Structures are given as structure tokens and as C-alpha cells.
């Protein structure tokens, strides 16, 4: 387990979302304009092989289900080096998404440029943007570790609902009590030059 302090001075709360153009498992390319009609955009850097990412997928699926009618769109982006981690290849993403019944776009960042632009540190790493696409929250989904291979793991959310609280505050037009919370996950598997 890795606790990563994702608070980045180079990408602070209030920063504008950085555009991307990435292929999805739906055979479509996606960018920020693809979600322009959404009130809130959640970008999650995630992957297939990390037990933390695997553990959080059921919670992310439930959040998308619970908030879709409120104009919230979740987008998963897999930036991991697929040469050294073949389970994270684009070809492996579709069967993985089918197995988990992922209900949101799942995109591949093969060049890792999008992850670098966002200063993403681990999987999962959550970025929440309001309608103006200003960063309002970065951090954990809830207080649990979420690793699927840990004793006592449950796909249910914990008692502290950081992501849900942030979404509710944005939708209600109020301030988020804690807009940045260090995340727990696997480090992003960067390509070596």
C-alpha cells in the first residue's frame, strides 16, 4: 500500500482542466468537449492490474449510477506502461471493463502525456471539475484503502464519503470542506526512456 501526497503546487485547486484526445474502449476518441453538457466531470486515473484500482471500481460504478441523472460524468483514464504491465494494455481494457460492468468511458493514455499534464501520481487518482472545468476536488473516494487483495476488503464505501461530499457540494453550489486529500494506491507505471 502506498500513501501518496497528491497535493501538487503545479496543479492546484482552481486550475482549469487540461484537454486531451484519447481513445476509449467504445472505439471513440474522447476529449473535454465530449462532456461539455455535464455539470461535473470526474477524471480518474486508474488501471486494470492495481489491486487498489480494482477495489475501487465497484464504488466508482455506483457513484456514476447514483449521480448520472444529476449531470455528473465519470471518465477513467489508464496511463500505465503496457509494455511492462500487459494487463494494462488497450486490448486488455475492454474485457476488464466487461467483467467489472464499467458504466463510464474508459480511455487509454498510451503516451502518458495526459497523466503527466495532470500530475497524476497513482491509481486511482481522482480529479473533480465543475461546469466551468475548474478543479474543485482531488483526493480519495472514501477513507478505506480499497485494495481488493487485502483481508476484510468490501466493495462497499466506507463511512467518510469524500468524493460524494465533494460532488454534493459542487452540485449545491457550496464550498468543499476538504478539497484535497492524499490518496492511497499503486504508483503510475511510467515508461522508461
TrEMBL record:
User: From the UniProt record, which GO molecular function terms apply?
Assistant: antioxidant activity; oxidoreductase activity
User: InterPro entries, alphabetically?
Assistant: AhpC/TSA, PRX-like1, Thioredoxin-like_sf, Thioredoxin_domain
**CDD domains, per database record:** PRX_like1
Identify one Pfam family in the record. AhpC-TSA
Q: Which Gene3D superfamilies match?
A: Glutaredoxin
Task: Identify the residues that the record assigns to the Thioredoxin domain, covering every copy.
Answer: 11-172
Q: What protein name applies here?
A: Thioredoxin family protein
Amino acid at each position: 500500500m502506498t500513501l501518496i501526497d497528491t497535493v501538487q503546487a503545479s496543479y492546484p485547486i482552481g486550475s482549469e482542466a487540461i484537454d486531451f484526445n484519447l481513445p476509449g474502449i467504445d472505439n471513440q476518441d474522447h476529449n473535454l468537449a465530449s462532456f461539455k453538457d455535464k455539470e461535473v466531470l470526474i477524471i480518474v486515473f486508474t488501471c486494470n492490474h492495481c489491486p487498489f484500482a480494482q477495489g475501487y471500481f465497484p464504488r466508482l460504478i455506483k457513484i456514476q449510477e447514483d449521480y448520472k441523472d444529476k449531470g455528473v460524468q465519470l471518465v477513467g483514464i489508464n496511463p500505465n506502461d503496457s509494455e511492462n504491465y500487459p494487463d494494462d494494455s488497450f486490448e486488455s481494457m475492454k474485457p476488464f471493463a466487461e467483467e467489472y460492468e464499467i458504466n463510464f468511458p474508459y480511455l487509454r493514455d498510451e503516451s502518458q502525456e495526459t497523466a503527466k499534464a495532470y500530475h497524476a501520481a497513482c491509481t486511482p487518482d481522482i480529479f473533480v471539475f465543475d461546469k466551468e472545468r475548474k478543479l474543485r476536488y482531488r483526493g480519495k473516494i472514501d477513507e478505506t484503502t480499497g485494495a481488493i487483495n487485502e483481508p476484510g476488503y468490501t466493495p462497499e464505501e466506507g463511512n467518510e464519503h469524500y468524493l460524494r461530499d465533494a460532488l454534493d457540494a459542487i452540485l449545491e453550489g457550496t464550498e468543499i470542506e476538504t478539497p484535497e486529500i492524499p490518496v492511497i494506491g499503486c504508483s503510475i507505471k511510467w515508461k522508461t526512456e
